[in-house]
Predict the structure.
Amino acid sequence: FLYFIEHIFQMSIMRRVSAGVLPRAFGSRSVSMGVVVTGAEVAKVRNVPVELVTKLVKPAVAQWTGVDILGRKRLASLAATVSAKPLVSIEAEIAKAPPASPVTNGRELFEKTDFKSLEELITVYERVIYQARVAKAAYDVLELQSFHIKDDLKRGLSAFKQAYLDKEKARLEVVKKEMKEKHDIITSVGAANFTTAIFNDIINLLRLAGEKQEQARMMALKVLDDMTLLEIAFDETTQLLLKNITFGDGPFDDSSLLFDCVMYPERGEISVATNASLESVADHALKTISARHQTPLDEGRLIRQGDTYPMLQRSPE
């Protein structure tokens, strides 16, 4: 009889999950952010000795255990509070009634506050990051001004008088100084209020809520952009979350590698059956892509930079 009751209970949970309803944890639904998963917790879930967890559990499996199994167990109750209200709209609400002074205790708020709903968490998040958003908007305006000044200086005496060029050079220095000030404000907001663990928890929470409401997944992508804006370092957990949110990848999937193959079909034309170094082979591949797509490459720094795709690289000109 007990087995029959347990079977009915399990079937009920399975139907709720298949219907897109996240199971809620028993007891209180309050959750805080910034919790780091330990090896002991992973070992307990995988039923292996703690001292052997790194040898018996593959790193990808251990990473996924912390993100999905343990993360779901801790965050599912809060993720279940997601509603149809777009979370991205909270930014505009905060802009209409901004905090009177910059928030400097964000890290304490995230780690010690027991959040009762996802909307409450994102409201606190937007209040904390508000100053960085204002600084970024001002930075973008200044950056456009610097581009305009540099264009004028590049045209030089062929288009402008020397007095105007001297004035623009002085103005460019002022703009650069103001840009640095705005950049420092942005990074200070990140350093004072956030950690990688806090961001990982917020992103993972939105990922789980995104299983029920797509707008929560879009908010997760926005938070990933904010993490880059504040210059908070990604770790392996962040990278796994990014792949899962963007491509639906699990621990052993690599859609970004497939994307590389689609982006660079010309790499198949490059032979590695030579005595050349890998760097020269890679340079050859980039030059082939450059010729195929009329994308100019620079022989110096830009040909080796790793933060953009080769197709997107341009010469300094």
About this structure: The CA atoms of residues 146 and 176 lie 7 Å apart. The longest helix spans residues 118-155. Residues 1-28, 311-317 have pLDDT under 50 and may be disordered. The chain is about 65% helix and 0% strand.
